Amino acid sequence: MAELFPLKQVLGFVISLVLTAVALLVYFTDMSFSLGMTILLVTAFIQAGLQVVVFMHAGETSDKKSIYTNIYYGVLIALITIFGTLLAMVWDM
Amino acid sequence: MKIDNSLPLEYSTEENSLKVLGFWIFLGAEIMLFATLFAAYFTLENRIGNGPSGAEIFEISPVLVETFLLLTSSFVIGLGIHAMRLGNKKAMMIFFSITLLLGAGFLGFEIYEFMHYVHIGATLQTSAFTAILLTTLGTHGLHVTFGLFWGLFILIQIKKRGLTPETANKSFIFSLYWHFLDIIWIFIFSFIYLKGMM
User: Fold this and answer.
1) How would DSSP label each residue in B74-129?
2) Disulfide engineering: B56 pairs with which of B46, B52, B134, B175, CB 3.0-4.6 Å?
3) pTM of the predicted model, to two decimals?
4) Which of A45, A55, A85 to mutate to probe the B interface, most B CBs <10 Å?
5) Which CATH number fits domain B63-197: 1.20.120.80, 1.10.8.60, 1.10.3720.10, 1.10.10.10?
């Protein structure tokens, strides 16, 4: 039975739960907007990375390089889209 | 068909490896799809017109339950893939079934949430904010709905054909999709709900 619950994945799940709890501090405590956003950015990206590495087995085969290049490219375009939009539409720069 | 037994079943042929890589590329495109939705959301979130703001309509408890359900389902499907690699078909099918049940639970809560929004007058037509909110949540919810059917068909196929290079490959690709939905939810949870209630 124990072989069905690999330590790495159980740990990954526990860390995800802890990170979710940390993110919730933003709601349950009184903090400044920039501190809250910093916490959310850190916890969200660590959790996303955890999913990709621990649960999606991104680095296990010889396609590792292609897979990571593809993820980094997707994330780069996502960040450019989001922050580009914020710059032009919200922050009025 | 050349089968390389040193690799897990889902990668064991060249075609299988290519399918996994191809699905990663699809997920890259999905990242960008959700990026455009988030970009639109951040632009429109304060344009509430005569409608309610996020802080007025978001409720922490259903969101927490949804987060917990999806996070757990993502963990459980990971266990399912692990069981698949051990060749344990029965355990794998149990884990996949639990995953789909948790996913259905998530969807149930999300449907309840949508009905609640409509009930309190936050519909697609109310304001730019409610329109983009429901579009973003709805796109994710639609992906989950699609995933439920996909997963169900994969379970049926595993039951009929057992664990072969083909069915293992399909199951693994489905697990990638499911984990990806959890990643998107983490961002929705953080930057739509928690940011809105901060």
Assistant:
1) HHHHHHHHHHHHTT-HHHHHHHHHHHHHHHHHHHHHHHHHHHHHHHTT--TTT-HH
2) B52
3) 0.92
4) A55
5) 1.20.120.80
